[in-house]
Amino acid sequence: MFNGRKDNVIYFYFCTYFENMGSSPKKTPPPLISLIPVLVLVGLLYAAVRAFGGNVLEGASQVVLLTATAVCALLSIVFYRVRWKDIEKAIVNNITGVASALLILLLIGALSGTWMVSGIIPTLIYYGMKVIHPDFYLASACVICAVVSVMTGSSWTTVATMGVALSGIGLAQGFSPGWIGGAIISGAYFGDKVSPLSDTTVLASAVTDTPLFMHIRYMMITTVPSILIALLTYTVAGLSYHTASTGEIAAYSESLNNTFHISPWLLLVPVAMGFLIAKRVPPLITLFLACLMACLCALLFQSPVLSEISGAGTSGLQAQFRGTLTAVYGSTSIDTGHAALNELVSTRGMAGMMHTIWLIVCAMCFGGAMTAAGMLGSIISVFLRFMKNTVGIVSSTVFSGLFFNACTGDQYLSIILTGDMYKDIYRRKGYESRLLSRSTEDGVTVTSPLVPWNTCGMTQATVLGIPTLTYAPYAFFNLVSPLMSLLVAAAGYKIKRMVSNEHSHKT
To answer: Which of 24, 202, 234, 393 is the most buried (most CB within 10 A)?
Structure first.
């Protein structure tokens, strides 16, 4: 609190200083100074991970991001004449840009809770354990997620539905969380990258002025070899992995069957959701209807489970109502008689996504401050110095995408910034726009789930219950794709130079 004339003067001084600091011409910070907030972020995140371990997303990471934001704002205001209003505006614009994603996250939390309690995911796990052989589980998980993601165009929806079910199957068969998460993420982001229904695919083609299907066809040059390498790795790993015995798998199946009412009728909900997605129904509406259908299935098929969730002291319709709403928004704990399975079928609903949403908001603050201060552009100018040949220009684009993923915390913003920044450069140097669109996706889309504080990394870690740094070393498609982009550029395979800018539309 500011009391008295002296404190009021001090308060007025600081307000005037920070509001009017930008009255003088704004200066662009040099790259070394621009790296200071990034180094603060990386250093504090490392310390936070060492101190908090798997609980780092519960608040420590958010404080670190806000601290790095404060360092960026302080440097830019005091030394480079950036107005606080400009920083605040950039932060607000960033948060506004991910508002729909935050709503989707809440619905994904509700979806994971209702699909588990209603028996949909237990049914998928039950039948999946009978169909998928343990030796080929990793490759099968990757292929299934790839097919679903191509059909839906959404890695988030794929991971929240089939990914969660496949995670349960993998744990029952004895695979480690890292391998499970890596296979699921690899398949989901293959589809997210090449599906014409994917928003990132459409965005990358639109930002770079590349026809959509030309963009998809050109991406296949780097994407197909990357997914084949990943599948080969998962196949070899699956054949050599020591999986659970058939007795343990049978125990899982029996516990699921005794706890939930397993029925093929429950599979109609995923089918209906696939139909809505095929009809291009907006994601928010699709996810809401999928949750609603799951709630109805819970009331029809899982009455004892809902009574257990509602707790003692409630019965009849009140218990069913309370149990259903708890599955949507809160934590649920179901006793299956099997300790490992109890952990698998527990859910957190919408409330379980709040740490992720909080983290996304903090990441948007950091990205907004870095953008308004001109520090992002200053750092990227370093990459531009290496653009002397095809390998240099592709490398700069890929590493810029990686950098934006780390600094802005959002793949959509990263795609837009990378595409906009390099579009004129590619045109001046005579490269086709499809080379830029492909390099952008190779550097941004597939690497976004590998960054712990990126919206994708946070979301997938929360939904799967597997920390980002645990699955990242095993997400081979996501790791290989940027390297494949550089390799193809070095080989010069199907990289054509336009004869002239005037005839670029003929290429």
So the answer is: 234
Residues 333-391: pLDDT tens digits?
A: 888 777 767 776 778 888 887 877 887 788 788 888 888 888 877 877 777 776 778 88
Q: Which pairs with CB-CB distance under 8 Å and at least 24 residues apart come from 341-345?
A: 341/172, 341/252, 341/255, 341/256, 341/259, 344/167, 344/168, 344/171, 345/116, 345/122, 345/259
Q: What percent of the chain has pLDDT over 90?
A: 21
Distance CA(112)–CA(468), nearest Å, equals 19
The tokens for 228 are: 């084949």
Q: How far apart are CA 298 and CA 116, in angstroms?
A: 9
Measured between its terminal Cα atoms, the distance across the chain in Å is 66
Judged against a pLDDT cut of 70, whether residue 507 lies above it is answered with no
Q: Give 354's contacts (C-beta < 8 A, 6+ positions apart).
A: none
User: Which alpha helices (H) appear in 346-496, and where do they start and end?
Assistant: 354-372, 375-384, 390-408, 411-428, 433-443, 455-464, 468-471, 476-491
| Location of structure tokens 């308060």 | 11
Find, among 441, 404, 390, the residue nearest to 205 by Cα: 441
To the nearest 10 degrees (0 to 180), the angle between helices 60-80 and 31-52 is: 160
3-state helix/strand/coil string of 290-335: HHHHHHHHHHHHCHHHHHHHHCCCCCHHHHHHHHHHHHHHCCECCC
Could you give the 3-state DSSP secondary structure of residue 449?
helix
| Residue-wise burial string across 135-170, b where 16 or more C-beta atoms lie within 10 A, e elsewhere | eebbbbbbbbbbebbbebbbbbbbbbbbbbbbbbbb
Q: Work out the angle between the directed axes of helices 99-117 and 316-329 (0-180°, nearest 10).
A: 140
| Highest mean pLDDT: which range of 119-128, 167-176, 239-248 | 167-176
Q: Is 349 left (phi over 0), alpha (psi -120 to 50) or beta?
A: left
Query: In this structure, what token pair is assigned to residue 190?
Result: 């293959």
Distance between CA atoms of residues 203 and 357, nearest Å: 23
